[in-house]
Structure formats: C-alpha cells, structure tokens
Write a structure and sequence with these properties.
The protein is mainly beta. 0% of the residues lie in helices and 55% in strands.
C-alpha cells in the first residue's frame, strides 16, 4: 500500500453536494495497512494514533493546523499487526495502550513515546477496548480463554469467558 493520508473533517458542516469540509490533513511517508485509529482532544491538542499491520504506531500530538504532516512521529512496536489502541488521559499524562498480535503495552504519548512499558507477552490476542470508571480505568484485551484487564501498573483482574472475541465494547450505565 502507498502513503497514508489523514484528514480531519468538520462533520457539523456536512452537505450532500460537497461532503464535509477538510479542516486539516497529513500525507505520511509510512507504508503499511491501517488496522486501527483512535483520537482524543486534550485542551488545544489533537491526538491521533494510527496502528499499522507492520507493528508501527503513527502518533500526532499537537494543535490542529492545515498541514499536520510534520507533527506525526512513528513508534515501532515490533513486527506484528496492531489490533487495538486506546488513549487514557490521567492528570498530566496521556497514555496510549496497545494490543498487538504478540503483546499488550502502553506508551506515554506526551514524551514522544519514549516511556514504554510492556505489560504482557502472549499471542492470540483478538480485540481490545477501554473501560473508564470512577476508581480506575482498565484496558481490556480479549483472548479465546478469557477477558484480561490491564492498568498502567500492570495486569488487573481476569474474567474466564471462553470463546473468540470479535468486539469488546464498554458502556457506562450510570
């Protein structure tokens, strides 16, 4: 696959004839198939994370500008496809959890990903999500044997729910 193009669209101004206007874009000199994307806004910063099938993470953490190409940086997490990524904003830190075909880990995005922590190495991960509640936030990873929970401190509880997981979704019912 060719270069990766990223566009930020204004869906509030969507119309049938012209579509949604583009607020910002980037053309990235990275190769690989996009497997997952997550975004978040923290104050004036737009954070975008793109997981690729070659194990690379492309991360944008800056104010939004018309050309964002120079604001992306790349982290190589290994050679296995990125299956899931989730942001966790906690006080002055912004963490990015990742689930690949071989491991679960996280990065501190505010220091350009130089703080990396591998939480667990295992294969056959299938999907992931994040659960926020008042006490803690868990990064959930589905495998055939169970649902595993992780925090920035390491592995949390595990729930023995058998079967292949295709999607993990968390709902707040409060």
């Amino acid at each position: 696959s060719g270069k990766i193009r990223v566009e930020v669209l204004n869906l509030a101004k969507l119309n049938k004839r012209e579509g949604a206007p583009c607020l910002a874009s980037a053309v990235l000199n990275q190769y690989g198939r996009v497997t997952t994307i997550r975004t978040c806004l923290i104050k004036e910063y737009l954070c975008i994370s793109i997981g690729l099938d070659n194990g690379n993470l492309l991360i944008h953490r800056s104010v939004m500008s018309s050309d964002m190409s120079s604001n992306f940086f790349c982290i190589s997490t290994g050679n296995c496809s990125i299956l899931g990524i989730e942001f966790l904003h906690k006080k002055e830190y912004l963490y990015l959890f990742l689930c690949s075909e071989e491991k679960v880990g996280f990065y501190n995005v505010l220091d350009n990903g130089s703080t990396e922590k591998n939480l667990e190495y295992f294969s056959t991960n299938s999907c992931s999500s994040i659960l926020h509640n008042s006490d803690n936030s868990f990064f959930l990873v589905g495998r055939e044997d169970a649902l595993y929970c992780f925090t920035i401190d390491g592995r949390g509880p595990c729930y023995a729910i058998g079967g292949k997981k295709k999607i993990i979704a968390c709902q707040d019912f409060l």
